[in-house]
Amino acid sequence: MYDLAKIRADFPILSRQVNGKPLVYLDNGASAQKPQVVIDAVTRGYAEEYANVHRGLHYLSNLATEKYESTRGTIARFLNAASEEEIVFTTGTTEGINLVSYAWAAPRLQPGDEIVLSVMEHHANIVPWHFLRERQGVVLKWVEVDGNGDLDPQAVIDAIGPRTKLVAVTQMSNVLGTVVDVAAICRGAREKGVPVLVDGSQSSVHMPVDVQAIGCDFYAITGHKLYGPSGSGAIWISRERQAEMRPFLGGGDMIREVTRDTVTWNDPPMKFEAGTPGIVQQIGLGVALDYLMGLGMANIAAHERSLRDYARDRLQGLNWLNVQGNSAGKGAIFSFTMQGAAHAHDISTILDKRGIAVRAGTHCAMPLMTHLGITASCRASFGLYNTVEEVDVLVSALELAHELFA
């Protein structure tokens, strides 16, 4: 049973008020709130258990190392990876994709080689490839979405040419909520011998993920969206691709031996993890993933589907609201603009006065904004603790905003 009242009680911030109103937190697409178990783990990690990892023989160092490294196994279970050695710790998806750009793509891509992207990628899955375009003459090939915001897997596969060296695609749009059939893309790309990187920042929060079933080569996640601490995350990298990668950062832990004249690298995943890491952050991420798996990702997905359906019905009843993207199987993410003079920032300010937290702007997806023909939108993104009553509060506040700008 999905006990929503009990789940909400696990998140202390949900009991507070904002501007004299109960907080309605609908900015989960940007960053999710943290359950008490994660807050406790982080507090305990600093107050009672802190020490550097991998480098000490004393009790605290061994304890911190054990808890830190256990998160690698937790992430492997969460993603159904074949081995925890395929899990590389990062500060989040942005670092994970940059790792692939610097450590795998940069050494092997030549001028004229191509990377295939969809138009709805987050900047984190665009800018690292622009670096290669600027510095190495790599060509970025863009695949459009249709009028509902859906991305046809075959269109991505058809965009793969003889010079294509990588497909980099999101599994769920952070703006439209569109869920992409990345497994179909991976099957088609593999037939053409092209690796696939999947941005799992949004999708991994809302649905079960199985990297082996997807068949990708890289899968990046970020902790702060997964109800864990900011500065935590990981990227799953297949052993085949790990063997092709050079180190990204140099320093402690990623080496086996250093002399005045030579250096030899540690084995993956340590080869790609230099310096003192975010110890407590990653421990907190492990606790957050245990919490999610305890609830059951399928249960979370079912709850959010019911929220999506209810919110879609209520928002469609506002004939002066323009909702971007209407994919049938989308996640519980709604980006919208209002007819008339109301700017997205104005709308979000009015909602904030009612205690409602939404996002306003380009959502780090400017190419998609251009494709949609808008400069900004408001975004209400739902999470595992949101309720249908909060949907009603959102709709009521939007009606107020419309009256003010009518």
Summarize the entry for a quick read.
It is an enzyme of class 2 (transferase). With 406 residues, this protein is α/β, with parallel strands linked by helices. It folds into two domains: 4-30 and 297-405, Aspartate Aminotransferase, domain 1 (Alpha-Beta Complex), CATH 3.90.1150.10; 39-294, Aspartate Aminotransferase, domain 2, CATH 3.40.640.
Keywords:
Aspartate Aminotransferase, domain 2; Aspartate Aminotransferase, domain 1; 15 helices; PyrdxlP-dep_Trfase
General description of the model:
It catalyses: (sulfur carrier)-H + L-cysteine = (sulfur carrier)-SH + L-alanine. Its EC number is 2.8.1.7. Its cofactor is pyridoxal 5'-phosphate. It is an enzyme of class 2 (transferase). This protein is of the alpha/beta class. The protein has two domains: 4-30 and 297-405, Aspartate Aminotransferase, domain 1; 39-294, Aspartate Aminotransferase, domain 2, CATH 3.40.640.10. Helices cover 40% and strands 17% of the residues. The protein is built from 15 helices and 17 strands. The strands form five sheets. Strands 4-10-9-8-7-5-6 form a seven-stranded mixed beta sheet, sandwiched between helices. The protein is globular and about 70 Å long. The chain starts with a helix and ends with a helix. The model has no long low-confidence stretch (mean pLDDT 97).
